Amino acid sequence: MSSQEEQQNQLEKHSYPVGRFVPAETYDDKLLQRWIGSIRSVPLLFDYCIENLDEAQLNTPYREGGWTIIQVIHHVADSHMNAYIRLKLALTEDRPTIKPYDEKLWAELPDVTDVPLNVSITLIHALHRRWVSLLMQLTEEDWTREYYHPADQTYVPVWQMTNIYNWHGKHHAEQILSLRSRMGW
Fold first, then answer.
1. How high is the pLDDT of residue 2?
2. Which residue of 30, 34, 49, 92 is surrounded by the most CB atoms within 10 Å?
3. Could you report the per-residue pLDDT of 56-83, keeping only the tens digit for each?
4. CB of 60 within 8 A of CB of 183?
5. Domain ranges of the chain
6. What architecture (CATH level 2) is domain 37-183?
7. What SS3 state is found at 179?
8. What is the DSSP letter of 83?
9. How far apart are CA 96 and CA 111, in angstroms?
């Protein structure tokens, strides 16, 4: 393996330590409960991820050229707020078109550097409590409701969105946990 291939493998491993998202082709009650459980556990997982880290560690990128731990946590809050709103839109409108956003630009806005990390951690706790409560109440018909994602030009059913965010929280938490492991924190 060439040096360049090795660097690509390392970048992929650090960027996607749990692997890239692979969409489920279908769902059942058991999968839905597992996905909801994963979404329920995300706030505690992030509490664990940042436990006992100092300011310098929190400002360390999870990989070369990547976001800092602070940016990752604020991103999760931003992303999961958008997901929750998309869920509510899908449940209350007929196949609504959602508004994409540039997550890289959002991660560079002043609230990411100026607002303490615990604000986003608290937000994630509160948001996930509401999100899980709503998911637990969905009917079979609700799970098949969809929103349209114009950037991907696809209709996304609620069950698939739940699958995506089951992965998303673990994906970003593992970026932090992998960094901690590599750094011996």
1. 78
2. 49
3. 999 999 999 999 999 999 999 999 999 9
4. yes
5. 37-183
6. Up-down Bundle (1.20)
7. helix
8. H
9. 29
